[in-house]
Design brief:
Layout (H helix, E strand, L loop, with lengths): L4 H15 L3 E4 L5 E4 L10 H8 L4 E4 L1 H6 L7 E8 L2 E9 L2 H105 L4 H79 L1
Antiparallel strand pairs: 1-2, 1-5, 3-4, 4-5
Helix pairs in contact: 1-4, 4-5
């Protein structure tokens, strides 16, 4: 992180408030970016230029130097601001050397501490933003899962209802088959009676006897078909009952899953609020 004017101004204003001595902070080009006196911003400082372009870390103006300069210099002390071994600027303060020299050393330490503190805050902000984004994505995915689970549960219940209606229709069909079977039995009985009457009629009833035989055969075929259909319907009914039971169980499970997923969604929403709160706190750091 670079030395910003915001950090620099915070330091020089604090030093002036606490000590009453004016100070400046220069960027790597020796340009003044913070001045507690607010009179030299943007000016290139000679002493800082020597520090930042040369091998020296300090620049000193003694009382004698200040007096001999005719007022162009002030007694004071300037010191390089180093971060990870590199010069990133300088701090200068005007006043009696015995007083301002230790102040300058403390101030440069404050600058570095503030820069590192801002770096940590930036990292926290980035992490919170990433966390918030991840939580938002998780919340969206959970909400989609809730909707999907509810939809699946709804479909499962609809299928169960349809299966129940199918079961009822099978029962109705069985009742119709019972009716057909009774008609077949009655038809068979009528055919048998007709055959008896034809036998009594002798030669004249022979044609009627043939018809009576066909009626009985039709009745037997109807009864046999009804029995076959009854077997098929029983198997179909058993299948429908099994499907209905399975769908009903699945629907219950889906509803439970939807409920559990909803609970998770609510928890994620709570975490989401915490993330947004952390984000707000990070912005206020």
């Amino acid at each position: 992180m670079e030395l910003t004017s915001a950090i620099a101004n915070k330091i020089v204003d604090f030093i002036y408030e606490q000590s009453g001595y004016h100070s400046i902070v220069c960027d790597p080009s020796a340009r003044i970016i913070a001045d507690s006196a607010k009179t030299r911003l943007g000016v290139v400082h000679g002493g800082s230029q020597k520090i930042l372009t040369g091998n020296q870390d300090t620049a000193v103006v003694t009382a004698v130097d200040a007096e001999q300069s005719g007022g162009s210099l002030k007694e004071g002390f300037s010191l390089a601001i180093k971060l990870n071994g590199a010069k990133i600027g300088s701090f200068g303060i005007a006043g009696p050397l015995a007083i301002v020299t230790p102040i300058a050393k403390v101030a440069t330490g404050m600058v570095i501490t503030t820069i590192r503190d801002e770096e940590i805050k930036d990292t926290i902000r980035d992490q919170v933003q990433n966390l918030t984004a991840s939580i938002d994505q998780a919340a969206a995915a959970i909400e989609e899962m809730v909707a999907s689970s509810q939809e699946v549960a709804s479909i499962g219940m609809s299928v169960a209802e349809e299966a129940q209606r199918g079961h009822e229709q099978v029962k109705a069909t069985e009742e119709i088959l019972d009716f057909i079977r009774r008609v077949a039995n009655q038809t068979n009985l009528l055919g048998l009676n007709a055959a008896i009457e034809a036998a009594r009629a002798g030669e004249q009833g022979r044609g009627f006897q043939v018809v009576a035989g066909e009626v009985r055969k039709l009745a037997e075929d109807s009864s046999r078909s009804a029995n076959d259909i009854q077997v098929i319907l029983k198997n179909f009914r058993d299948t429908i009952e099994a499907v209905a039971a399975g769908v009903s169980q699945s629907g219950k499970i889906n509803l439970e899953q939807a409920s559990n997923t909803q609970d998770i969604a609510e928890m994620v929403e709570g975490v989401k609020k915490v993330g947004h709160y952390l984000s707000k706190l990070a912005d206020e750091l």
